[in-house]
Amino acid sequence: MTRLLFALMLFPAVLLTAQSYHNAPPEGKIAGIPPKAWVEKIDRLAPAQATAKPAKNRTVLMFSLTTGYQHSVSPYASEVIKVLAKKTGAFTVVESSDIECFSPENLSKFDAVVLNNNCPQSPDRDIFLDVLNNKATGDKTIGSKYEDLTPQQRKQKAAELEQNLLDFVSSGKGLVSLHGSIAMQNNSAEFSKMMGGSFDFHPPRQELTLELVDPDHPLVTAFNGQGFIHSDELYLFKNEYAKTNFRPLLEAMFDKLDEKSRNNKRISQKGRLYVSWIKRYGNGRVFFVSPSHQPESYETQCMLRFYLDGIQYALGDLSCEDSPL
User: pTM of the entire structure?
Assistant: First the structure.
């Protein structure tokens, strides 16, 4: 009886400790178009107001085209951004899947671009060229209006569209990259420089333990000084990532990975496993966030606040230290 009473006395303390460590809901089977009930849940959990007062009315272009791997989370991420915009009034959103939205004339209407899981085809790894060459998973007519262009003209136009985005950000605007979109122009050295890295690979989805690199940094205040655990793909990066020319925000704990991942030299030799960061590119600001491959990860107040704060940083309304460590 004494042992039982002692165990019962300990149980509340153990429960409190577990709850204080932000655990995202377990992995489910969400896919396809987000149900109305899910969007309503996100609306309830989303912040009621912006963290920083916008300096002016802000407009964001959300680019949601995918020509390669189709992330089922993409329409969920789209709804998250729309909910954050509508509920807080921090910005308005225009969503497009048309590569012509990257013309200088169109980009001039926006304060930031959100790249929503824009995975391209291999081996080119160039979403603009995929469209121009009429190569897209599930859509055999996406590039039909460009069929009269020569191969050289298509390459030139693809390069121009990428350069338009680079110029947009470097001129002082913002860029937000969600999960798979870091691979959008994966063979481009300058895109890698702007992003802070290029996609390399990921081990199988698993439960990840993420910690705050600097718990006192303004962009991670949403987590109240605590890391969190959720089911996700651990993205690993290459090219510019090796220079760590960014301010890391979240990192995955190597010792918490599954055994197969811990024994993978391609992972163990990477050093610290950063999964979210901010950085400067010219006069502009970039916010990259790998979490998450799973819609369930959005079902927490802290993750929604983190996204909002990152977007406000990219827009230039939330000032914080963004120099590399």
Answer: 0.90
